[in-house]
Amino acid sequence: MKEKVVLAYSGGLDTTAIIPWLKEHFNYDVVCCCIDCGQGSELDGLEERAKLSGASKLYIEDLVDDFAENYIVPCVQANATYENKYLLGTSMARPAIAKRLVEIARKEGAVAICHGATGKGNDQIRFELGIKALAPDIKIIAPWRMTDVWTMQSREDEIEYCKQHGIDLPFSADSSYSRDRNLWHISHEGLELEDPANEPNYKHLLVLGNSPEEAPEEGEYVTMTFEHGVPKSVNGKEMKVSDIIRELNRLGGKHGIGIVDIVENRVVGMKSRGVYETPGGTILYEAHQQLEELILDRDTTTVKMNMANKFAQIIYEGKWFTPLREAVQAFIEKTQENVTGEVKFKLYKGNIIKAGTTSPYSLYNESIASFKTGDLYDHHDADGFINLFGLSLKVRAMKEQELSKKNNK
Known about the structure:
By secondary structure, the protein is an alpha/beta fold. 43% of the residues lie in helices and 19% in strands. The strands form three sheets. It has a five-stranded parallel beta sheet with strand order 3-2-1-4-5, with helices on both faces. Strands 10-9-8-13-14 form a five-stranded antiparallel beta sheet, covered by helices on one side. Helix 2 links the parallel strand 2 (29-36) and strand 3 (57-62). Helix 1 packs across helix 6 (155-164). The protein is elongated, with a radius of gyration of 26 Å.
C-alpha cells in the first residue's frame, strides 16, 4: 500500500500541479484537503478538479465558524494589529488550517503534509510551525523550496507540466494579482503593487467593495452590541460571529471602509507591499475599541496596548500554538469581562464616525469629567498631586541649576 500525503489544496494552478508532482517524485497516494475559511466561490468545482489531477480523495472542511470564534475573536479583543495597519487576515487563518491538516493526516494515517507556499513568504513559516507544534512526527513537504526536483518557475511551466500528465484544465497563463481571501479579508500583491512608487489601480483591484471616492454620498448609521468583548448583534439583529462579519463586510464594502496599502516587514527579512481589503474587520476593531474606551481603566489600557502589539507579532510569526500566545490571550480575556455595551457609528466614504456609546460598566462619570465642579472632584486636590507627581522633575531641575551656578563661577 502506498504511503499517503495530505496536500493543502486551494484548487489553483500551483496546488493542482503539485498533485502529479507528488505522485511522480514520491509515489504518494495524494489526499487533498481544502479548508474553507470563507473564501466563497473559489471552492466551486474543486472536487472534479482534484480527481482529474490524480488525487485519491478530497476533503472540503468548513472552518468558517471555528475561524471566526476561535481565531478572529481573540484578535478583535486584543485589537491586534501588525505594524499599525495589518489586521492579520492571512496570519490568523493559517493556524486554523494547519490544525485541520494535522487532524486529516491523523485520520488518513498520512506520513506527510504538503503545502504550496513559496520560499519567500510568511505562510511557509505559519503552516510549518503549526504542524511541528501539533505533529512533530509528520514530514513536511514544501515543493517551492525543493528546487532540485521542483523545476517549474512560471505559470506557463506549471500549465505545460499538467498537460504532460494528462491534466488539461482551463488555467490562464496571464499574470494577475496574487490574492488570498477568507471571511475576514482579501489581500492583493503583484503587478503594479511590486513598485512602491506606483499608485494601486483600485478600479481594477478591489473585490469586496468600493473605493471611498465611489462610495455613496449619504452616510449610514450602524449599531452594534458586544458581550464580554464578543460581538453579538448588528442593527438590532443577533447573529453568530461569522454572520456579523459578513454583514459588516457588506456595509463596509459599500462605504469604502478598510482599504489599506501597506509595505510590511516579513518574517523572512524582506519588505513586501500589499493592498488589503478588510471592511468588516476594520469596523469590528473600531467598534470594539470605541466600547473599550469607556470601560478599561488607564493602567489596564496601557498594558493592553503593549500586549496587543505582542499578540499581533506572535500571530504574524506563526507562533499560535505556543505557551506565550496562550498566556497573552489569557490576559486579554481577563480584560474583556466587562466589555459589554452598545456602540453606534456612521459609515461615510471610508470613515467610521462615532455616534454614541453606552455600557453598564462605563467608568465615565459625568460629574467628575464635567467642567463644572462636582462632589467627587475638588480642584484643590490637584495641588498636592502635581507637587508629588512632578517631584522628581523638580529635584532634577534644582540640581541642574545648582551645577550651572558652580560652573559659571
